[in-house]
């Protein structure tokens, strides 16, 4: 049995052992990695600074998000990016944003950095239910935002918001 190792099959109540070749296991892990990496576009989570996120963000579907200094945002056609309940698309045309850190879930106020932006509509308290989040990621094309209602959601390439060029 050289070059093999034993592992238990948890679904078998008798806990019989089976032999697997290391090269077969490596192949299975490699395929799993490829499948998992294809589930979500945008690259890896990115700890962004306020300077990284300020500006105009757009995507191929025509969504438009302007993140302004002072903690405000404006948006157009946000419904093209994230599913929202009735009335929320209009509520999210203006509002406040907050950069959220990974560890403390609230970025420090002196030098805010985070990988999530919370977008909250202005107006009545009941509109807070329309709040959404933007996951900040970075890939070979740069920083991008994935707008979601549920943090477990992902974006496809066409849904990702990318910073518009300033020139």
Fold and architecture overview:
- The structure is a single chain.
- The chain is α+β, with helices and mostly antiparallel strands.
- It has 3 helices and 13 strands.
- An 8-stranded antiparallel β-barrel has the order 5-6-7-8-10-11-12-13. It has a two-stranded antiparallel sheet with strand order 1-2. It has a two-stranded antiparallel sheet with strand order 4-9.
- The longest helix is centred in the N-terminal third of the chain and has 16 residues, at 22-37.
- The N and C termini lie far apart (65 Å).
Share of residues in strands = 35-45%
- Note the run of SSEs as H and E: EEHEEHEEEHEEEEEE
Low-confidence stretches: 1-22, 26-39
Largest sheet: 8 strands, antiparallel, barrel
* Total beta strand runs: 13
Mean pLDDT score: 76
Overall helicity = 10-25%
First-to-last CA distance: 65 Å
The class by helix and strand makeup works out as alpha+beta
Radius of gyration: 21 Å
Q: List the total number of helices.
A: 3
* Anisotropy-based shape: globular
Give, in spatial order, the strands making up the sheet with the most strands: 5-6-7-8-10-11-12-13
């Amino acid at each position: 049995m050289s070059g093999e190792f034993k592992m238990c099959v948890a679904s078998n109540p008798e806990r019989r052992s089976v032999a697997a070749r290391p090269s077969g296991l490596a192949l299975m892990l490699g395929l799993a990695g490829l499948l998992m990496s294809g589930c979500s576009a945008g690259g890896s989570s990115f700890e962004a600074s306020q300077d990284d996120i300020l500006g105009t963000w757009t995507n191929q579907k025509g969504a438009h998000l302007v993140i302004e200094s002072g903690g405000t945002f404006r948006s157009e056609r946000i419904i093209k990016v994230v599913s929202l309940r009735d009335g929320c698309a209009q509520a999210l045309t203006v509002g406040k944003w907050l950069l959220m850190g990974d560890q403390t879930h609230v970025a420090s106020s002196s030098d805010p950095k985070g990988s999530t932006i919370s977008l909250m509509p202005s107006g009545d308290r009941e509109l807070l239910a329309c709040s959404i989040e933007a996951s900040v990621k970075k890939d070979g094309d740069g920083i991008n935002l994935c707008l979601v209602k549920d943090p477990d959601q992902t974006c496809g390439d066409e849904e990702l918001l990318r910073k518009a060029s300033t020139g």
